[in-house]
Amino acid sequence: MQNFDWIVLGAGITGSALSYELAKKGLKVLLLEKDPTYDNATRYSYGGVAYWSGTDDDSIQLCQESREIYHNLSEELGENTDFRELDLMLTIPVDNNPQSIAENYQKFFIKPQLLTPDQSVEIEPLLNPDAISGCLKLPHGHIHPQKTNNAYQQAFLRLGGTLNYEEVTQLLSKNKTVTGVKTNKQEYYSKNVVICAGGLTRYLLKHIGINVNIYFTHSQLILTPKVDIELKSLVMPGILNRLNIEEKSGDSELKSLWDNSSDQIISDVMETGAIQFLDGSFCLGQISQIISNPLAKNDQILAEKTIREGVSKILPELENLPGKLHHCLVAFCADSNFLVGKIDNFEGLHLFSGFTSTLMYAPPLARRFADWVAEDNKEMPSLL
After folding, report:
1. pTM of the full structure
2. Which domain range does residue 306 map to?
3. Cβ–Cβ under 8 Å, residues 152 and 77
4. Does the record carry Lipid metabolism as a key word (predicted)?
5. Mind listing the pLDDT tens digit for each residue in 16-29?
């Protein structure tokens, strides 16, 4: 029988960061991950850290904590995360009023600079000035997600943590109290389990009768190998339709669709963007589809064609870069930036998932979570 102080489910950036912070407190921690190839949202992330995006005292504080953590994280973990600061260029379609789009960003504590098409091209020469009415420029953090995730895990292991690649098949409980987990290989026991399973969080909880407002999109993008062309900034659309469809997913008329797994596309959106990592490789575009079946198959040929057509308009020199389409589930919470805390009606069960801006929120909240645990959970938020 293997006993742990904490069992963490999911070894993407959320689970890896949280496991590391718990192990720093001297706790015996087991980190479980079903996929050793990490075919997940961390691997297929643009790597952006939106530390400008706070809108109230709490989120502004988290933004500031996140920026401070990243500036020191490579040194703390003993491995390079490729952290840097660069320009975020939010493109505004040619048929939209730039001032109107800029007004939508005035709620953030760091305000964007509105640029004309010519000014935009001076900063990012690969942009097509004829396809935009302008850009919003913001300061942005950036990491290599896989390198950062691996750095967290290696530091966790050096602290005595355990990382096993096994699929969790059941949450073990008795009288509404967590006792551990069952995997495809064995059982592990703990009085504390925290779910960091991203897009699969909803289904793990559903098996024990808990419904939470965590949903997921099927995300598709193109990854390229190292190429010679140079992109100087992170390019994303200024109108984020993905956030609109995520907000609507929590509406009462759509909630019932999540209770019945289906391959029906409830809604979808294609966002034209690009980022080049320090190793010369690119992420291109992102298609986000809301489909309630996590195992639904996507039309990869159509998706790649759609992404490349979108990229050709805004960043024409990137349209034909060699690359391969990839797919993953991306968790989100329709009515908040994240769900972090303990589930009151199920003793020992916790959530650390549903992040709107995962790379920004996860590191500071993982640190806070570990502090709450060290203080006997007195300050930990309750999730009813």
Report:
1. 0.94
2. 87-140+214-333
3. yes
4. no
5. 999 999 999 999 99
